[in-house]
Amino acid sequence: MTTSPLLAIQGLRAAYGKIEALKGVDVAINAGEIVALIGANGAGKSTLMMTIFGKPRARAGQILYEGRDITDVPTHEIAHLRIAQSPEGRRIFPRMSVAENLQMGADATECTEAEREATLQRVFTLFPRLKERYDQRGGTLSGGEQQMLAIGRALMSRPRLLLLDEPSLGLAPLIARQIFDAIRTLNRQDGLTVLIVEQNANHALKLAHRGYVMVNGLITLAGTGAELLQRPEIRAAYLEGGRHG
Length: 245
Ligand SMILES: Nc1ncnc2c1ncn2[C@@H]1O[C@H](COP(=O)(O)OP(=O)(O)OP(=O)(O)O)[C@@H](O)[C@H]1O
Ligand SMILES: [Mg+2]
Description:
Layout: E1 7-16, E2 19-29, E3 34-38, H1 45-52, E4 60-65, E5 68-69, H2 75-78, E6 83-86, H3 98-107, H4 113-126, H5 128-132, H6 143-156, E7 161-165, H7 173-190, E8 193-198, H8 201-207, E9 210-215, E10 218-224, H9 225-230, H10 232-239
Parallel strand pairs: 3-8, 3-9, 6-7, 7-8
Antiparallel strand pairs: 1-2, 1-4, 4-5, 9-10
Helix pairs in contact: 3-6
This protein binds adenosine-5'-triphosphate and magnesium ion (MG).
């Protein structure tokens, strides 16, 4: 049995020109975990996810995946490592059908026809709406359906590690709950490891086994989801009296 994390990020720095977005970040994700990353606007959460995919490139530090240094692996090869992401703002292909969007996900990695079909059926079980809308153009889906499609597309590449950037953003509470339920199901039934970025700290920390708080390009707090939910500074900053509850 291995004790090293599935993903270990150590001393990671990244910048956009002179803007330092990550200033030395340490994050570890164990196989089978859901880990939440929370923090205010501009903290660097999306940058952390994108740096795993090499855009932007790390300026310092290391990203280890299954013990292997993937810091300099080209972006297009990351999917072959069975890492997938659903980026902020969904970014599905609006002119393509649901079917074609899902096929794009499947094309990111090699799989047999039987594997592709089984994965598609799994996505339909999680998100029956996508089956109903199979031939419809992505751009005509509702916001919640587009989020389901973005996650479904990521799943079609059959990842071991799924990175989700603000999956509940802009969604009605009922739809957001469906998304969170699907993530929990994928983790429990399929053993999928998940890193989830969320401004909805309450939901994310209830869903996650562990969480990290990012402030201004640095991790300032880490703990189990339950621990972080109890912390006064978390409650004050992210949970009480506002849109994050
Ligand atoms: N393409 C870019 N060019 C220049 N600066 C950028 C770019 N993307 C992000 N930044 C800056 O990097 C910092 C971190 O941004 P990032 O998008 O990672 O934050 P975030 O935590 O995801 O915020 P949010 O919760 O608003 O999505 C911010 O100061 C932002 O202005
Ligand atoms: Mg972001």
